[in-house]
Amino acid sequence: MSRSHFARLRLVATVLSCSILLVPSAPSQVMDGRLEVRVIDPSGQGVPAALELVSRSPQFIAGAVADAEGRATLHRIPPGTYLLTARHEGFEVAERRIALQSAVPRVVEIALSVATVREQVTVRARAPLFEPYRPSQGTRSGREDLEQALGTTLGRSTVDMVTAMPGWLLEANAVLHPRGSEYDTQYVIDGMPLYDNRSIAFAPAFENSEFEAVTVLTAGIPAEYGRRLGGVIALDTRRSAISGHRTSLDVQGGGYATRIGAFSHQYASGGTELTIGIQGGATDRYLDPPSLENFTNRGSSGGGNARFARDLSSRHRLTGYARTNRTNFLVPNDLVQQEAGQRQDRRSSETAGQVHYQGTLSSRTLVSVRGMLRDLTSELWSNELSTPVYVSQDRGFSQGVVMADVTFEGERHTLKIGGDIRSSGLRERFLMAEPDELPDFDLDFRDRQRSTEASFYAYDQLRAGNFAASIGFRFDEYRLLISDRAFSPRLAASYFVPPAGLQLYASYDRIFQPPPTENLLLSSAGTGLGLDAVEEVLAVPANKGHFIEIGMRKPIGGAMRIDAKHYWRRFQNYIDDDVFLNTGLSFPITFDSAAIEGTEVRIEAPRWKGISAVASYSNMLGRARSPVTGGLFVEGGEAEELRDVVEEFPISQDQRNTVATTVRFQIHPRVWASFGIRYGSGLPVELEDDDDDDDDDDGDDDDGDDDDGDDDDDGDDEAQPVPGAILRKVNFARSRVHPNLSLDFSVGSRVWERGSKSATLQFDLRNATNRLNVINFSGLFSGTALAPGRQATVQLRVRF
Questions:
Q1: How far, in Å, are 165, 169, 660, 743 from residue 617 at the CA level?
Q2: What spatial distance separates the first Cα and last Cα of the chain, rounded to whole Å?
Q3: Which among 449, 443, 442 has a CA at the least distance from the CA of 428?
Q4: Residue-wise over 542-578: b if at least 16 C-beta within 10 A, else e?
Q5: Is residue 728 exposed (0-12), middle (13-18) or buried (19+ Cβ within 10 Å)?
Q6: Rounded distance, CA 659 to CA 301, Å?
Q7: Enclosing H/E stretch for 408
Q8: Are 175 and 181 contacting, i.e. CB atoms less than 8 angstroms apart?
Q9: Beta-carbon count within 10 A of 699 CB
Q10: Which of 332, 744, 764, 771 could pair covalently with 676 via S-S, beta carbons 3.0-4.6 A apart?
Q11: Highest mean pLDDT, choosing among 180-184, 249-253, 442-446, 639-643
C-alpha cells in the first residue's frame, strides 16, 4: 500500500475514534465474567441441578452444581456465546443459549420440566461454532488441549501451544515472532499485561500446568492492550471448578534427560477459592545449540504460585495472585568454545504479586482495579577460558503497576473506559575483558534509570442487525531515555450473511511500541563506553505502525469452521535485536522501516464422530530498510555499515510458508491418539560476505556465532569447522535455510477413573524421523541454532 493510502486510512480511523461515546468496541479476552444461574421446577421452586456451560468458539467448558435453592455462580468466564445445560434426575434436560459480552455479571434463570416417557429420539442443541456478531475474535486453547499437549523440553510447553496457531513463528531459544515482529509479544496474566521479553533465555518460562486457557490476538486488538502489539497472549490461571478439595499432579520424563513435575491443590467453598502450586524440572537441552554435540546445555527451574479469591459480598470480589520462579542454565558452546574450555552460566529469577478488585455498581456497570509489584533479575557470568571475550552481566528491573477501568453494558453496546500507570526501575551492570588481560576490564558499565508509562483508553461495541462494529482509541505516554507519546485509534467491523453462514470482517490498528528494556541502557550509552571500536550510538526510538486485516469466517457442515484472513503491517522504526561480538548478549536496534504482508488460514473441527482436528497455514513476506539505530556494532563490520546506507532486505523472521496440523482420534471413551505435522519453509540467512562464493561462506561464516564486527581476515582467528550435515541444510544460493519438518505422534489413556478421581498416562514422540532441522544459520544478526531431534516423552497426570 502507498503512503498516501495509509494516510487516508489514518484520517478515517481518527475521525471515527473521536465518536467513541456515540459508537461502541470489542470486549477483551480475559476470563473475568460471572454467570449467576437459578434453576427452578414448574412450580418455581429451586432445583439442585448439575450445570454445564460450553462454547466451541473458542473452546471453553465449565461446570457447577446448584445449591438447594437452585442457585449457582460460575466465575471467570470469558466473553462469548455459550450453551448452558441443566440436568437433574426426574426432569427433562434444559438448554439455553447465553451470550456474555463483558465482565459485567449476568443473571439467568433456567426452568426444568418434569420428565415424561417418550419413544422418539431427542436431538440436543450444540454450542455455536463461531461468533457471527463479533468482529475481533481470539484463538484459544482450553484446559483439555493444554493437558493433552505433547511433552517437550523445559520451558516450552506454553510456547508450543502458541506456535500451533497461525501467524506465530518460533525462532532460536523459543523466541516467539507474531507476524514477523521481534520484540512485540505481550503476555497478559489474569488481565495484567507484561511487556518484557519472555523467551526462555531472558526470563523464567510459563508452563501449561498453571493455566486454564491460552488465548492469542494478532489483529482487531482492543484498546486496553498497548505497548507490545505484534501479538497478545492471554494466560488465565486455573479455575476452581467444583466445591471442596481438588489435587493435581503432573509428571513428565523423556529425551535429553528431561524431567518436569507440577503439583497443585485447589479448595473452593461458597465464595472462597484458594489454589497453591509448585513446579520444577531439569533438562540437558535447554537452549537451541549451535552444534550437533549439544555442548554445555543443561538447565533447571523451580518455583511456586498461589491464588486467592473471595466474594466480599454479592457485588464485590477480591482476588490475589503471586508467583516466584527461578531458572539456571548454561550457554551452549560451539566447537571452538568447547575446545577452549569455556563455561558461561546464566540465571533468571522473577517474583510478582497481583491484586484485583471487581465491584458491581449496578446490573449494567462494573468497576475493576488491578495492581502489581514485580522484580525480575537476569545474570550471566563466565570462566577465564571464555572466548573470544570474558563477559559478566547483572541486569533487571523492579516495577509497580496500577490499572483501573469501568464497564457499562447496554442493550446494543458495551463501553469500557480505563487507563494505567507503571513505573519501572531499570538496573544494568556489564563487565567485559579479553581473557588474557583479566582481572583488568576493557568495559565496566553500570547504570540505573527509572521509566514512567501512562495510558488512557476507551472502547465499545455496537451491533445493528447483521452488522457489528467496534471502535476505540488509546493514548500512551512514555519516558525513559526518550520521551514520546501517541494517539492510537482502533477499528473493527463485520457483517454476517445468514443464508451463507458467512461472516466478513476487517480491522485497523494504529500501534505505538516503546523501546525494549533488555540491555537498553548499555546499548544507548555507546559513545561513553570507552571502546574505540564501538561506533556512535543513538537512543533507540519508539516503534509506530499501522496494522490492517481483512478476512472471513464460516462454519462448514455444523462440524468445522474456517477462518481465512490477509493482513498488511507497516512500521516506522521497526524493532529487532543484534548480538554483540561473540557473547550471546543481544541489544535492541531499529530499522528505519519495514513492510510485512501475509495470508493465514485456520480450519478447525472441535469434535466430529470422535475426531477433532485443526490445521493452520501462514504465508508471509517481510522486508526491512536500513539505516539502523541502536545496538553495539563494532567499527568496520558489515552490520555497522547499515548505520549510514539505505538497503532493503528480508526481515530475519521472513519464513514464507508455515504449516501446523494436529488430528486427534477418540478411539475409546478413555483412549485417544493423535498425530501432527509442523513445517516451515526456512528463514533467511544474512551472510556477511555476499561477494564470497559458497565455499568461502562455509569456511568463514559458519561458526555458529554472530560476528558483527570482526572483519579481520589475517588468519589470527582460526575458522571454525562446520559439519557438512549443517551446511547441507543451508541454501547459500538463495540465502535461506532449507525447510524444516517434524512429524509428531501421541497416544494416551485414562488408565484409572473413579468419580472425579483419575490417572492418565500419555506417550509422545516428537520429530519421529529424527530430522536435522536448522532454525537459524550464522549471519549478520543471528547465530546458528538447531532444533531438537527425536524426543520421546512419557507423561502421568493424576487428579484426586
A1: 9, 11, 7, 16
A2: 57
A3: 449
A4: bbbbbbbbebebbbeeebbbebbbebbbbbebbbbbb
A5: exposed
A6: 31
A7: strand 390-409
A8: no
A9: 15
A10: 744
A11: 249-253
Residue 35 CB coordination number (10 Å): 22
CA–CA gap between residue 398 and residue 448 (Å, rounded) = 11
Classify 498 as helix, strand or coil.
helix
3-class SS of residue 550: strand
Q: What's the predicted TM-score (pTM) here?
A: 0.87
Which residues fall within 8 angstroms of residue 72, CB to CB, at 6 or more apart? 36, 37, 39, 51, 64, 65, 66
- Contact assessment for residue 30 and residue 235, using Cβ atoms and an 8 Å cutoff: no
**Cell, residue 672:** 485417544
Query: Which single residue is written with the C-alpha cell 563466565?
Result: 382
Backbone angles phi, psi at 112, to 5 degrees: -100, 145
| Phi, then psi, of 86 in degrees rounded to 5 | -120, 130
- Write out pLDDT tens, residues 352-405: 999 999 999 998 899 999 999 999 999 999 999 998 889 999 999 999 999 999
| Placement of cell 556489564 in the chain | 430
Q: Name which of 280, 278, 358 is nearest 323 in CA terms.
A: 278
The one-letter amino acid at 139: T
Cell of 506: 476487517
> pLDDT tens across 250-268, in order?
999 999 999 999 999 999 8
Between CA 655 and CA 650 the distance in angstroms is 9
d(CA 509, CA 17): 11
Give Cα separations from 202 to 67, 205, 272, 424 (angstroms).
Answer: 48, 9, 36, 17
pLDDT for 779 = 62
